[in-house]
Amino acid sequence: MRLITGTTEFETTEATAISLGKFEGLHMGHQLLVNRILKKKEEGLKALIFTFDFGERSTLLLPEERRNLLEKWGVDYLIECPFVESIAHMEAEDFVREILVKRLHVKYLAVGTDFHFGHNRKGSYRLLEDMQKECGFQVEVVEKACYDGREISSTRIRKELEQGHMELVNQLLGYAYSVTGEVLYGHQIGRTLGLPTINQQPGLSKLLPPNGVYATKTRIASEIFEGITNIGYKPTIGGETRKGVETFLFDLDRNLYGETLTVSFYGFERPERKFDSLEALKERIEKDVAWGRKYFGEREN
Ligand SMILES: Cc1cc2nc3c(=O)[nH]c(=O)nc-3n(C[C@H](O)[C@H](O)[C@H](O)COP(=O)(O)O)c2cc1C
Ligand SMILES: Nc1ncnc2c1ncn2[C@@H]1O[C@H](COP(=O)(O)OP(=O)(O)OP(=O)(O)O)[C@@H](O)[C@H]1O
């Protein structure tokens, strides 16, 4: 995949199939659009995702994660267009003519019914439909994908994530919500509790579910290991200043320091608490482990 980022001077040489938007979560609705443009590769078009870069903000997918997913799915070009004045103030028609047609050679566009663009968000799928003949591209308008009778959106997913509803979050996303990070050194107390753990700190703008204990799966190279993960500040051992993600793998005890691992979240068990003693914490974690094993044991994997 070719990544064009940090510049408004983008251009393709080939004809393209494009979808535009924020694509914050790359959820099931977004995937409908991505699949439409990927299908057009069969007709010789390059699949291009055009997103705006609003700078650092808390988000479901970090830029790196979004790039990796789109690359894995087979997208040819990802443009992360800086949301600067010259772009934000462009009239919708000019954006289509100057950018989509002249610079990106668009032949096909897939957009959702609520997609808006250009100065004052005046551009909509209707404008694109009106311009398609004259500009030589075809527009496909995709109905909003729903789950449980309600539209899927990044906003809805954020709200569910804030409440720790991971099963629903994963259904809406179409993949399991994950965090990736290097394995860091903790206080080395875990080991003395008979509980070697993986400590990670995801990027600061990555949205995390509420502090507490979750059933998780961790990918190490090509293998997947089940475990439980605590998100939080470890108040019992004096607390951390930065929120961490700490995972105990049920069936693996290997030195993983320095490796970069991805932990995917499934079910929520309980909130993080301050215990009166390390012994009380240890007892609780033993129950957490039993809960986690049962969680996965009861489900088809
Ligand atoms: C499954 C799990 C649940 C945890 N729950 C809590 C908790 O509720 N409260 C707390 O203070 N720390 C909790 N911890 C963090 C422990 O305090 C921490 O694992 C232990 O002290 C070792 O930390 P270290 O890796 O920095 O040595 C939890 C850790 C795990 C793996
Ligand atoms: N549920 C959906 N089904 C189909 N297309 C969708 C869906 N949600 C968004 N889209 C389309 O995907 C493109 C990018 O959408 P965008 O990321 O801006 O919206 P969103 O996920 O609804 O986010 P937010 O909740 O932040 O508005 C747009 O063309 C939009 O219409």
Automatic annotation (TrEMBL):
Pfam families: FAD_syn, Flavokinase. One of its GO terms (molecular function) is riboflavin kinase activity. Residues 172-297 form the Riboflavin kinase domain. The keyword Mitochondrion does not apply. SUPFAM superfamilies: Nucleotidylyl transferase, Riboflavin kinase-like. InterPro entries: FAD_synthase, Riboflavin_kinase, Riboflavin_kinase_bac, Riboflavin_kinase_bac/euk, Riboflavin_kinase_dom_sf, Rossmann-like_a/b/a_fold. Keywords: ATP-binding, FAD, Flavoprotein, FMN, Kinase, Multifunctional enzyme, Nucleotide-binding, Nucleotidyltransferase, Transferase. Pathway: Cofactor biosynthesis; FMN biosynthesis; FMN from riboflavin (ATP route): step 1/1; Cofactor biosynthesis; FAD biosynthesis; FAD from FMN: step 1/1. Its EC number is 2.7.1.26, 2.7.7.2. It catalyses: riboflavin + ATP = FMN + ADP + H(+); FMN + ATP + H(+) = FAD + diphosphate. It comes from the Bacteria. Gene3D superfamilies: HUPs (3.40.50.620), Riboflavin kinase-like (2.40.30.30). Belongs to the ribF family. NCBIfam families: PRK05627.1-5, ribF. This is Riboflavin biosynthesis protein. It comes from Laedolimicola intestinihominis.
